[in-house]
Design brief:
The complex is a heterodimer of chains A (285) and B (302). Chain A is built from 10 helices and 5 strands. Chain A has 285 residues and is of the alpha/beta class. Chain A is globular and about 50 Å long. Classes of the chains: A alpha/beta (285), B alpha/beta (302).
Chain lengths: 285, 302
């Protein structure tokens, strides 16, 4: 990736984060987890995936399934910036008259399938990957899960099946931000050694820094990692990336910030002083 | 024709059809050879199987998902509800050994709440054919429709020939009766026929309705029976809660009617595991015992 490309990517990711921050007021959203995968989604939609706003139903497109549905603010941000939806639609967040809510659904152009219940889309993506293979297509099928989401047994069922069927067109991307909803993963249900677990399930695994566009580019371009194995990319990330005042804090899970706090966070995002947030975290899950 | 042959023929004629199973191959042992890569066995992973079926349906396929009733409907319930129901996808659930058909397996394998669970899912249609003839006449229509469906598989052969063409939302009215009408679905249809003969020997006028389409329901057929007969029987190998008894109760409330209803079902308990004939005998679901139970209740009411 050239320096210019990287700059463009970073600028885009910054604007995506801006949308996430704005969605964290006036009703709130899952801000921290949305910020941890914002760079991954920005990278995937800004040139890597074979998909575009005018080809969201094209059968030859690549598929991106957001299994950790609560991170949809980042996807909304990407879609708004890249023209899948009109930016003005983000103002309809949580309006009963639109479909922009805390989890994704197919009334938003570009969303492949609804999610919210964790551990579903690795399996749904298997169905799509099997069909692609039956038709002899070369569509790539990506599914993004959280790391806390890996507690769900259905994820491991999907890994067993993807591996049994040698689905090299199926890729599991893990947003490894090291947090469950309220607790660090390693303090509750430890996942490490995570790469070894995926390898033991028959996958070809790479682990990278999920905020480094060079690493993202190099790794995704190397897919599939193995001709007869599904691929797994563990992206080490930081919950709340871009906002040091709220990052890596267990109490910044679901947040509904005041207008003033949103403004402070937008300033912080753009390099000004850190925000001073006093709102308490909310319990949604 | 058999269930397995029908799937094979329909799938060979139409590439949309994909068969999935969670390693429940008893009825479909030849399909891997017949269908090749369009037969997908996900192993004992009901959740993944349903998710994958939803993914296939997203790509325009019509997955026929063949698995054991209890695990299909309960282990994978949330996947059916969230991926298939909410997704409004044409996934065809083919439910093997529902109700009494799990005979000797024991309560872990008894799907006697499946109708309640499946009919509670928006966009899901529910069917329970009376026997193999009824099943094979119904499946092509069900599988070619654009809707999600749940079918209680029943491949038992009976002497009864179902004359009516199968239609989604239509009951088969076998007989009309003034004294009592039996509403029944699935394998107990055969016993209902026997019960009807028993009661007719006692001079009663007995109606019989095969409710093979439970959702959508043939409300007209049911309400006609209610209007015509002094008593209505709901006969089912299902918990009383949520099955046909509840379906009838809902319909009566909705149409502001009432009826003398005799439920014959499993009242908040599982059945004693045994081979099917012994189950029917022990639980009081043979034709003779059904007739006895009905006439006793009718006498108490009078």
């Amino acid at each position: 990736m050239t320096l210019e490309q990287k700059k463009e990517m970073s600028d885009l990711a910054l604007r995506v984060r801006g949308h996430v921050v704005r969605l964290s007021g006036n009703g709130g959203c899952f801000i921290g987890a949305s910020l941890s995968c914002a760079d991954i989604m920005t990278y995937l939609y800004n040139g890597f995936l074979n998909i575009a706003p005018d080809r969201t139903e094209n059968p030859d497109r690549d598929f991106f399934f957001l299994s950790k549905g609560h991170d949809v603010p980042a996807l909304y941000g990407v879609f708004a910036e890249l023209g899948y939806i009109d930016k003005s639609r983000l103002a309809h967040h949580l309006s009963p008259n639109d479909s922009i809510y805390w989890h994704p659904n197919r009334n938003v152009p570009g969303v492949e399938f609804h999610s919210g219940s964790l551990g579903h889309l690795p399996a749904v993506a298997i169905g799509v990957a099997l069909d692609v293979r039956l038709r002899g297509g070369d569509n790539r099928v990506m599914v993004l899960t959280g790391d806390g989401e890996l507690d769900e047994g259905s994820v491991w069922e999907a890994l067993l099946v993807a591996s049994a069927y040698k689905l090299n067109n199926w890729t599991l991307v893990v947003d490894r931000n090291h947090f469950q909803a309220n607790v660090r993963t390693e303090e509750l249900i430890p996942l490490e050694p995570l790469a070894a677990k995926f390898e033991a399930f028959g996958c070809s695994v790479r682990r990278i820094n999920g905020h480094d566009f060079d690493q993202l580019d190099e790794t995704f371009r190397a897919l599939p990692f193995h001709a007869e194995k599904p691929s797994v990319i563990i992206c080490d990330t930081v919950r709340g990336q871009g906002l040091p005042s709220i990052s890596e804090r267990a109490d910044r899970w679901f947040c509904n910030f005041s207008d003033n706090e949103v403004d402070q966070l937008l300033d912080e995002l753009n390099g000004k002083d850190g925000a001073n947030i006093i709102s308490e975290t909310l319990t949604v899950r | 024709m058999s269930y397995e042959k029908l799937i094979g023929e329909m799938a060979l004629a139409d590439e949309r059809f994909i068969v999935l199973t969670a390693e429940n191959r008893a009825l479909i042992r030849n399909l891997p050879t017949v269908l090749g890569p369009r037969f997908i066995d996900t192993g004992i992973t009901e959740q993944c199987m349903i998710g994958a079926a939803a993914g296939l349906a997203l790509r325009g396929r019509t997955p026929i998902v063949h698995a054991l009733s209890a695990f299909l409907t309960m282990r994978a319930f949330e996947f059916i509800r969230t991926d298939v129901g909410l997704g409004n996808l044409p996934v065809k659930l083919s439910s093997f050994v529902p109700g009494f058909l799990s005979d000797g397996n024991g309560p872990t394998h008894q799907a006697v709440e499946d109708v309640a669970l499946m009919r509670g899912i928006p966009n899901m249609q529910v069917f329970a054919p009376a026997d193999e003839d009824d099943l094979l006449k119904a499946l092509p229509t069900i599988w070619n429709s654009p809707h999600a469906s749940y079918v209680r598989l029943n491949t038992r052969k009976t002497d009864f020939i179902h004359v009516n063409d199968f239609e989604i939302g239509k009951a088969e009215v076998v007989a009309e009766g003034r004294d009592v009408t039996i509403l029944v679905y699935g394998l107990l249809f055969e016993q209902a026929l026997l019960a009807k003969v028993e009661m007719e020997k006692q001079g009663l006028s007995v109606g019989l309705v095969n409710l093979r389409s439970l959702k959508p329901l043939d409300s007209n057929a049911v309400l006609s029976a209610v209007g015509r007969s002094s008593f209505i029987v709901t006969l089912e190998d299902h918990f009383r809660i949520g099955g046909l008894y509840s379906i009838l109760a809902e319909l009566l409330l909705e149409s502001q009617q009432t009826a003398k209803v005799i439920p014959i079902s499993l009242n908040d308990r599982w059945f004693r595991p045994a081979l099917l004939p012994a189950v029917l005998e022990h639980e009081g679901f043979t034709g003779k015992k059904i007739a006895q139970r009905i006439t006793e209740k009718m006498t108490q009411h009078v």
